[in-house]
Amino acid sequence: NSGMSFVTPGPSNQGPQPTADHFQLECHKVFGTYLHADHGELRVTPVTDTNRSAMWKEDAVGDGWFCLVMLHSGEATDPANELKLCIEDDKLVIGKVEGTPDRALWKWSGNGAWKYLDAKTATNLRPSRQPDGTAQAKVDNDWSAQWRKRHLSPLQ
Running DSSP on this structure, what letter comes out for residue 8? Predict the structure, then answer.
């Protein structure tokens, strides 16, 4: 898994830089589609290599649980490295969350290269790619709810 190189952004695409800890989440259902934010909505569609909303890192909290933190949403008013993937009212959302509440905790499950993301608060709900390309929390055990990390090669 050689990953990819992060392309130096042009003046119109400035923002926080990814680190070696950042990765993209590729969906098994449709190769080349990644979990990312698109104007506040979570989508699973192809992205450009400089799309910071498709770059995530795990902040471990112990016992296998972690927060999934987005590098940046692309919205100028949003902070970098603060938005977390959460389950709220059985919906998949990103938001600025203080600390590590259960609604923002995830754990990998399954065997093989493609894995499921299990939510701590709603163990039957998983991030899943829907036919329209949106990402939703669903009770899914098929390829639309399986993910793998695609690591980034940070800028030198």
Answer: P
pLDDT tens digits, 53-111: 999 999 999 999 999 999 998 777 888 899 999 999 999 999 888 889 999 999 999 98
Residue 51 to residue 33: CA distance in whole angstroms: 12
- d(CA 57, CA 117) in angstroms, rounded, equals 14
E runs forming strands in the chain: 4-5, 23-27, 34-38, 41-45, 56-62, 65-70, 83-88, 91-96, 106-109, 116-119, 126-129, 135-138, 147-153
Q: Tell me the C-alpha distance between 37 and 118, whole Å.
A: 20
Q: pTM for this structure?
A: 0.87
Residue 60 β-bridge partners: 66
Residue 145's φ and ψ, nearest 5 degrees, are: -110, 15
